[in-house]
Design brief:
alpha+beta
Length: 110
């Protein structure tokens, strides 16, 4: 019985992470003031999608790009394609979670 060892590599871009955290904080502060706006959850989900990691299979290893926005700093169409795929995937996940939280908070306040 042969046991295969899987390697993982973490690609980290601190500048992209800092930019996304500042953007998410700005959206959150604006959202506290204008919660009735319908685009708040959409924009916050987009910022959250940029902050979540992307898992990309490589040549015998798994590459984790953290944050997902780090893929857009690479001038390569393959990296941009993977970044867009995970941007859409992470967007729908965070949008669904934020809508559940929003409905829960709305029902609780009534």
């Amino acid at each position: 019985m042969e046991i295969k060892k899987h390697n993982m590599r973490l690609e980290f871009n601190g500048v992209a992470l800092l930019f996304c955290i500042i953007l998410s904080t700005l959206v959150w502060f604006l959202g506290r003031r204008y919660r009735a706006k319908p685009y708040f959850v959409f924009i916050l989900s987009f910022c959250g999608a940029l902050l979540l990691p992307a898992f990309i299979p490589g040549h015998g290893e798994m590459i984790i790009a953290f944050p997902n926005a780090a893929l857009f700093t690479v001038f390569n169409s393959l990296a941009w394609g993977a970044g867009l795929f995970y941007l859409v995937l992470n967007f729908f996940i965070s949008y669904a979670i934020l809508n559940i939280i929003k409905k829960y908070l709305y029902l609780r306040s009534s």
